[in-house]
Amino acid sequence: MSPYDSDPADRLVTAAADGEDQAVEAALRPKLLDEFIGQERVREQLSLVLQAARKRGATPDHVLLSGPPGLGKTTLSMIIAAEMNAPIRITSGPAIQHAGDLAAILSSLTEGEVLFLDEIHRMSRPAEEMLYMAMEDFRVDVIVGKGPGATAIPLELPPFTLVGATTRAGLLPPPLRDRFGFTGHMEFYAPAELERVVHRSASLLDVEIDPAGAGEIAGRSRGTPRIANRLLRRVRDYAQVRHDGVVTREIAAQALKVYEVDARGLDRLDRAVLDALLRLFGGGPVGLSTLAVAVGEEAETVEEVAEPFLVREGLLARTPRGRIATAAAWQHLGLTPPVQPVRGAVPAQPDLFGGAAGS
Ligand SMILES: Nc1ncnc2c1ncn2[C@@H]1O[C@H](COP(=O)(O)OP(=O)(O)OP(=O)(O)O)[C@@H](O)[C@H]1O
Ligand SMILES: [Mg+2]
pTM of the predicted model, to two decimals? Predict the structure, then answer.
């Protein structure tokens, strides 16, 4: 049996939204730019773009928000609309299969409306090309009829602001990227910022928490507000069931031990990968597929689910010769790295059967 037999997508520390997240996120989302914690640079730049547009009485330039899941792209897009006092229309790349789907949305926009296009890198090619023209000239060509008799009917659009979000900015074709007047790159949050996120969410959820309790949750949240909010909800459950509901450092640590999220935010799968790398392969280098077999997982799961965070945390490195553990990995698991053999030294003959035979 795999030591990690639940679906990796169900992990407590995944940055992707699950059903429960979607239900509570609306309540936890900051509504205005001033309430949005962290991301100082993006916030300042965006604030200038919006203020300038307001001053000119114009519609703000198109905005692209890029960055890993759970950092606040959807939240910011809603803030843009709220700050501009404009309605917002929400759709996503995968929902737009045909150019006609996009034409229908675009032609029904009102002046100044914000069109939020999530996962914009997953839009179909023909829709993308229609979007170029819509973004630049506020115009689309609606094709009527089929074959040689098809005609393009130009349709004027009211000025609108496109807010695109993507976790993979590198996948956007340059002509699309170039049509955004402003691109905000979202960064992982610092622990102190996440602590503020936890405090804010706790007060919205009516959870009593002290600063050390918030710090404990923040430190395990992988730089991601969505994870911080999720861990807070699980810690709240524990505090309410086993204690009086107040979250302290002690309670948070106990709760997250139950849920197998360690002090650095590693979960069972992450730790299993590190543990195998250190204990079975002496810290590597070891090939991905060998490591995956040792953990009882698919190579893909190890590579895509566990490794990115381990690499980001400086616990594991991918080298051409295979995966290797860093000194920090040994330290984190409380293990001692093997002593490096001195070149040319004669290795001592191991006493395989234990010296004290017959005892
Ligand atoms: N700066 C912030 N301050 C407070 N809460 C935040 C902040 N950023 C994100 N959050 C919270 O984190 C949750 C996830 O944010 P959001 O849905 O905007 O992420 P996202 O970048 O759109 O993720 P995805 O790529 O999965 O769509 C929301 O519930 C929101 O309340
Ligand atoms: Mg989103």
Answer: 0.89
